[in-house]
Design a protein that fits this description.
By secondary structure, the chain is of the alpha/beta class. It has a single domain, classed as 3-Layer(aba) Sandwich (UDP-N-acetylmuramoyl-L-alanine:D-glutamate ligase), CATH 3.40.1190. 35% of the residues lie in helices and 22% in strands. It is built from 12 helices and 14 strands. α3 crosses α11, α9 packs across α10 and α11 packs antiparallel against α12. The two termini are 37 Å apart.
Length: 325
């Protein structure tokens, strides 16, 4: 049996956040509010021109694993980074936070994946993305005994942009199902979800749980109607976790829809809130708790990361006495 209760397959990202005026973006040849994919040199050149950058390790699955580790769970990450500075930054961050690295950095001549978030005002964010080494992940990179022997396997939707995905995802899912490992699909990115909607809808017939925020589910079902989203998901035999920012979350389980309120906090930043919610939910499920307890734990853990800037909160999350609200 694996030493890891939860294993996640995802992208190894280093995110950078900066405030940048519309005029400054235009002077750099960037369309304000756009999502732009660039190559390694373009990304490096752009980052070199930006000052006062806040940097943190990212990726939805990686964030969830960090939160689970801080809840004293044993977790492992499968994702491809490079041996460059960003790759070492990412891996050191995960190791420092108690996550077992199940794939060492790649020696291929690719940079670690990165995203530069440029905020011009509270409602306008411009994203410059470099896919990098993450996109080369393949079946030969994985130890299947680690991947399929955990109690939960997290699969991040971001990996759907990997060109080699078709070579290995079906094998991983099939082996996990045969090993009675619960598979959790983490939507993670509304743009990826929209690009791969049909594939994801097929994949949901093979997984046990799907988690994401309301915007990602809107992209998945191609509707902004919550009732339509619920109807579309009710055909699947799986559990659905949909976070709704300050409005809390809804859980669809066995045809039963329940809304849970957000846990109060001194709000600073919503980064990784949904990732931490999933961690709290899984933590309770690993303890054999019911859905109501798990949803409450999810909200409490999400509140912790919402109280700080970025995707990391305190070094430990101690909820030995769960207080319902």
């Amino acid at each position: 049996m694996s030493a890891n209760e939860v294993v996640g397959i995802g992208s190894a990202w280093v995110n950078r956040v900066v405030h940048c005026s519309v005029n400054r973006l235009q002077s750099l040849g960037i369309e304000p509010g756009a999502v732009i994919k660039v190559d390694r040199q373009q990304y490096r050149d752009l980052c070199a021109q930006i000052q006062d950058v806040f940097q943190y390790a990212g990726g939805s699955v990686a964030n969830t694993l960090v939160a689970l580790s801080r809840l004293k769970r044993s977790v492992g990450f499968v994702g491809k980074s490079s041996q460059d500075g960003d790759g070492l930054f990412f891996l050191n961050d995960l190791v420092a936070n108690g996550v077992n690295i199940l794939l060492q950095p790649s020696e291929v001549d690719l940079a670690t994946s990165g995203c530069l978030y440029q905020y011009s005002n509270p409602t306008m964010v411009t994203k410059v993305v470099h896919l990098g080494a993450s996109k080369t992940l393949g079946l030969s990179d994985m130890s299947m005994s680690d991947v399929v022997s955990a109690r939960y396997l997290l699969i991040e939707a971001d990996i759907l942009d990997m060109p080699r995905l078709h070579e290995w995802l079906a094998t991983v899912v099939d082996m996990a199902k045969k090993s009675n490992t619960d598979i959790v699909l983490v939507l993670s990115n509304k743009y990826v979800v929209a690009r791969h909607r049909e594939f994801l809808m097929d994949l949901m017939g093979c997984v046990d749980m799907v988690a994401g925020n309301e915007v990602e589910f809107e992209a998945l079902l191609n509707t902004q109607s919550q009732a339509s989203i619920v109807r579309g998901l009710s055909h699947f035999s799986l559990r659905v976790l949909m976070t709704q920012s300050a409005n809390g979350a809804i859980v669809l389980d066995g045809g039963c829809l329940t809304t849970y309120g957000a846990y109060p906090c001194e709000f600073v930043d919503a980064t990784a809130a949904g990732d931490y919610y999933l961690a709290g939910f899984l933590h309770a499920m690993l303890d054999g708790q019911g859905v109501e307890h798990a949803a409450t734990m999810g909200s409490m853990v999400a509140a912790e990361v919402c109280s700080v800037r970025g995707s990391r909160c305190s070094q430990s999350l101690d909820f030995t006495e769960l207080v319902c609200y």
